[in-house]
Amino acid sequence: MKDFAQLFTRVDESTKTTVKVAALADFFATADDPDKLWTIALFTGRRPKRTITATRLREWAAEVAGLPDWLFEDSYSIVGDLAETISLVLPPAESHVDQPLSYWIDEVKRLATLDEPDRKAGILAAWDQLEQVERFLFTKLLTGGFRVGVSAKLMTRALAKATGQDEATLTHKLMGQWTPETTTFTDLIEADDPGTDLSRPYPFYLAYGLDDLDDLGDPVDWMAERKWDGIRGQLIVRGGKHYVWSRGEDLMTDRFPEFAQLPDFLPDGTVIDGEVLAYADHMPLSFNALQTRIGRKTVPKKVLKEAPVVLMAYDLLEDQGEDIRSTPMADRRARLEDLIAGVPNTAPLKLSPGVAFQTWEALAAEREKSRDLNAEGLMLKNKHSPYLAGRKRGDWWKWKVDPLTIDAVMIYAQAGHGRRANLFTDYTFAVWNGNELTPFTKAYSGLTDVEFRQITAWVRKNTLQRFGPVRQVPPEHVFEIAFEGIRASPRHKSGVALRFPRMLRWRKDKPVSEANTLDDLKEMLDLYG
Prior knowledge:
The protein has 3 domains: about 1-145, DNA ligase i, domain 1 (Orthogonal Bundle), CATH 1.10.3260.10; about 205-400, D-amino Acid Aminotransferase, Chain A, domain 1 (2-Layer Sandwich), CATH 3.30.470; about 405-529, CATH 2.40.50.140. It has helices spanning about 1-15, 15-30, 35-45, 55-65, 70-80, 80-90, 100-110, 115-125, 130-145, 150-165, 165-175, 185-190, 285-290, 300-305, 330-340, 360-365, 450-460, 520-529; strands spanning about 205, 210, 220-230, 230-240, 240-245, 270-280, 285, 310-320, 320-325, 350, 375-380, 390, 395-400, 405-415, 425-435, 435-445, 465, 470, 480-485, 485-490, 495-500, 500-505. It is built from 18 helices and 22 strands. By secondary structure, the chain is of the alpha+beta class. The longest helix is centred in the N-terminal third of the chain and has 14 residues, at about 15-30. Strands 4, 5, 6, 7, 8, 9 and 10 form a 7-stranded mixed beta sheet that branches. Strands 14, 15, 16, 17, 18, 19 and 22 form a 7-stranded antiparallel beta sheet that branches. The two termini are about 50 Å apart. A hairpin with a 7-residue loop joins strand 20 (about 485-490) and strand 21. Helix 5 (about 70-80) crosses helix 6 (about 80-90).
């Protein structure tokens, strides 16, 4: 655990990519295979399940530290992270034991099988054997909340440096539904054949947001299509079976039983990149319809009927077992069109229609139609571009429509977490409903650090009431809230819920009396919900 703690410290303390890559590469060059495998798993989001509730950990830590509950809670609210709070307040370890990371992972899994008294004894014994950073990491593992600022791209770069392999090959190897319990470091990283797992997807190619059309040059080199508002996914047909993966590497096959018929129409060795959409009457439905299916392990017949899905196909990555990602976009598109031409119209697979244009002005006019078609905007792709991995600048661009906006009044504030633990960054906003302010959303991003500090100073001087970590403040400040969508929500007092709300700007120029109303929100709901 000592070596892993040193790795975590090096990675966590630096914002430089080169430092993070060097730290990981050094670790991979010297660590045992089980620790290397678990490090890859933890840094790519494959964490052990939670062993114990946060409530119990708080109680036990306060008891061991000899602190009253209120003092521990105040410390927690200032630090902003439970595991870090525990690592700081506990007394120094009586006897340090240097076991590898894999040992402590096994201990976390063993503790999960015990009854509460034995589990408590095991956790307290572990805390008493670990130094501060190690104790922090162990507690993170207990909560199932281990996160670190390392992207998949940095991980593959470090592995490439340590093993001498190609980054693209390693990126593919790390995709799929593997866990340290189902593979070994040798099988995952050092094996020659990355295609042994038939379900494994390809890394997704991601686009940058477009700011200026003039940067793209001649329109003749570009093709456009709608940016559909659904779940990005890959459909894989291999070995007579089908698999559906999300961009976040979640296997979604069982959530969309409609796709089970597609292997009847597609040749073995087919991989299609597209968007899973709720779809009816030859039109995409809003994202709100798709949300009724997100997170369900089983989908009842009623939901299947109300929100049927299709895969709106963007790209063909594998054709009859051949990886064609290096061929130009225009050629892949032609092969995709030929493939889908042989699929019945009744099947849940559609070709994403191209958007014809000859000038950028014509394309801009097409972009304005997006919301009427339940699309987020347009995708622009260079006709000569290969299908790459990750976010690359130059060949693929997303040109989204401007967000919806509403002017709202801040009525509550709460401190953030991590580096924002000493700042009030999480706000609750309200709109006018008659002569009263009705809360309708929360937001915590979009302002500068300077603005967050200014608001924090104001909150501390103007708190009206405290509700745990939340502070009620006078309704004096108006903010422009941007969001991507709106839907009806009986769970909220306002009756609406926003999609991706964030603060666009602090409206210091606008009096509170001129903030928007609940009727304004409901009018938006009628138009875009």
